[in-house]
Task: inverse folding
């Protein structure tokens, strides 16, 4: 399949490498010049489950794509949410009326941005449990296993998504169709909406936060705001299931000693965060449905204050 990876950071690199290994024709588009230069020079490199790998794939800066001759059958979006609209605008010349566009970004409400550029019939919205990191320009760190749930937003349902599911599965990306993707997206957003912002502001790993005397109270308060907003949209969530997933983050034997990705982005790399599309999205939806969201609002403001203090870009 002819595939564009639009945003070749940590996750885009994982998907690019796995889809390239499965013999797809993969074109990379990104906006970070040092990364593009490194990939042009040495290929896209990765530590892939302990093995050093690299692959040559064409890569273009998003400002250059109007010169590219590539008719994509599938675009996989993997920018940060703040970069999404700029990327969709940039790749417009490569997206034709049959191109499927898959969005697996964390956070809530991306379909509202994507539908300005792509007919809903072609949009696949999803959620992924794969993870990835970047070691520096041109090099990713890819460990572990994952999965993808996705749903077609058009009227054709699963049949519209089938060729994409087959391509993802041939690349061992473990994709399956979901009839209820918003529920999975909200469930994951509850985990990100607690662990990310709280560990970032408190300068704590997930286990240390989870063992504080107030962790349960704070997490319940935030999650109750996500649940109220989900309920107003008829999105079903199960309290015990969501809380079990959050509590599993505290386990020191598994992932508890890690800092969430927002911590890495803001505290370590001084990059802007996706808080406006996680807790901030709950605040906006809360205003729409007249639901108070004081915890999400406060956490969003604290993270923005930290971004300003650190001069995040
Ligand atoms: P990323 O920050 O690695 O990459 C996103 C974009 O930012 C890319 O275009 C990349 O080139 C650019 N970028 C990265 N580092 C940069 C730097 N130092 N300077 C300038 N530009 C830089 O993002 P990601 O982790 O791949 O995440 C993409 C989306 O997937 C997000 O919505 C994220 O929440 C979601 N997601 C991430 C993971 C994960 O484990 N990383 C897992 C699931 C979902």
Result:
């Amino acid at each position: 399949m002819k595939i564009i990876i639009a945003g070749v950071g940590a996750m885009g690199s994982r998907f690019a490498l796995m889809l390239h290994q499965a013999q797809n024709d993969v074109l990379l588009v990104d906006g970070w010049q040092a990364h593009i230069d490194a990939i042009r020079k040495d290929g896209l490199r990765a530590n892939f489950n302990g093995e050093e790998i690299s692959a040559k794939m064409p890569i273009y800066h998003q400002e250059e794509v109007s010169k590219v001759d590539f008719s994509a059958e599938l675009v996989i979006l993997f920018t940060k949410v703040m970069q999404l609209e700029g990327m969709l605008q940039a790749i417009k010349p490569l997206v034709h009326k049959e191109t499927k566009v898959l969005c697996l970004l964390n956070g809530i409400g991306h379909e509202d941005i994507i539908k300005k550029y792509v007919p809903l019939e072609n949009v696949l919205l999803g959620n992924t449990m794969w993870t990835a990191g970047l070691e520096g320009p041109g090099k990713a760190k890819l460990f572990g296993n994952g999965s993808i749930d996705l749903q077609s937003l058009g009227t054709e349902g699963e049949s519209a998504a089938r060729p994409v599911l087959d391509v993802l599965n041939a690349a061992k990306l473990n994709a399956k169709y979901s009839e209820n993707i918003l529920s999975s997206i909200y469930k994951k957003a509850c985990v990100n909406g607690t662990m990310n912002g709280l560990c970032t502001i408190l300068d704590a790993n997930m286990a240390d936060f989870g063992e504080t005397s107030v962790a349960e109270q704070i997490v319940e308060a935030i999650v109750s705001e996500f649940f109220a907003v989900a309920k107003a949209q008829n999105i079903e969530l199960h309290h015990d299931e969501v809380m079990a997933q959050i509590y599993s983050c505290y386990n020191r034997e598994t992932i508890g000693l890690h800092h969430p990705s927002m911590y890495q982005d803001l505290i370590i790399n001084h990059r802007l965060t996706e808080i406006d599309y996680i807790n901030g999205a709950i605040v906006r939806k809360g205003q729409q449905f007249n639901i108070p969201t004081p915890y999400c609002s406060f956490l969003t403001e604290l993270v923005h204050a930290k971004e300003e203090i650190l001069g995040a870009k």
